[in-house]
Write a structure and sequence with these properties.
Blueprint lengths: L1 H19 L7 H14 L2 H26 L2
Helix pairs in contact: 1-3, 2-3
Length: 71
């Protein structure tokens, strides 16, 4: 299960990068800045894609941490 969430996590970061056109660091503040950038400077569709990717990224981080805590 850990591998699944790691893939979700990596894909979410890749999707965010695709929306804004540059790599997004795996850090909450960097993700927040990337989301704000997309919402201000990109289309509504791109902003929606970014919101979905951020949601997946957050969920995956929580799942990965939960699996580590129970390992």
């Amino acid at each position: 299960m850990q591998e699944y969430w790691q893939k979700v996590h990596e894909r979410a970061l890749a999707r965010m990068a695709a929306v804004i056109g540059e790599e997004v660091a795996d850090d909450p503040s960097a993700v927040t800045l990337a989301l704000a950038f997309a919402m201000k400077n990109k289309s509504c569709m791109d902003a929606a894609k970014m919101i979905c990717a951020v949601g997946d990224w957050k969920w995956a981080r929580h799942e990965i941490e939960a699996h580590r805590a129970h390992a």
